[in-house]
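Here is one chain, start to finish.
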Amino acid sequence: MSRLYPSPQPRRKSRLPCPFLLIGGMTLNVWRCLGMAVLTALPLSAAEVPDLRALAKQARPAVYLLAIQDEDGEVKGSGTGFLVSPDGLLVTNHHVVAGAKQILAKAENGGLFPVIRVVATDPANDLALLQLEAKDLPCLTLAPPNSAEAGTRIAVIGSPLGLEGTLTEGIISARRKLPGQKREVLQISAAISQGSSGSPVLDPQGRVVGVASFLLAEGQSLHFATPAEKLQALLQRVNSSTRPPKPALATTASPKSYTVRAGDTLTRISRELNARGVTATPEQLRTLNQLPTNAVIRPGQILKIP
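Its structure:
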């Protein structure tokens, strides 16, 4: 007798997608189909994902390009700094300003501010506090202590190679001490370059979690920052001593000055000064304060006058 075998039934297709990832030569089924468990990514909360456009708009006015000058006013280097108080207290790296004779800070809108003195330094953590002659300026706040940990999303705003207001993003890769060093640093993946030194490292809320400091050229994305806790300690040291005066830089401003108010232009300032009996044309003010032709002056900026 011949045996009867059931006719083959067509295989039913799963309604679930079954993509595969190739990892190290092995195939990994991401979706476990046919009634098996399905692996999905956990959603990120809004607080963990920075709105980069909003963050840049918020933070850029407080970030400055620093021009490092010699005795003759020639620019010998550049870096980045950012304000942590509205009266002109600016943070940068110690190695940026070490040995500088004059320092000029340029704001996002082109306003120029002379650095009148070095307030405090912490060479071990590559930090320096500088004082601008200004008031009522936008500034950044520090994040809570130890809030920066591996995986925290961050953004850096600085002036790599003099390109002001450059925004890069990444994560904190690790919090570590480098081999042979006692200094604690944040390892970050956000790109930095020469000129980025002193840039603020910001969390998704725009708070400072670190200060960009250096990179290791031997590898990729090996960038490092000083944790904000070290900056907080330096600020507390300064506040407890009521900001003791440090050696003044050669850019100390003339006693004669004018504080820019809302709506001021060089022409308007010139007219007001002339009414006071001080002869100063707009071009004289521009030359005296080293303002570019298209520079925009901002409220709180202090201008030298004849």
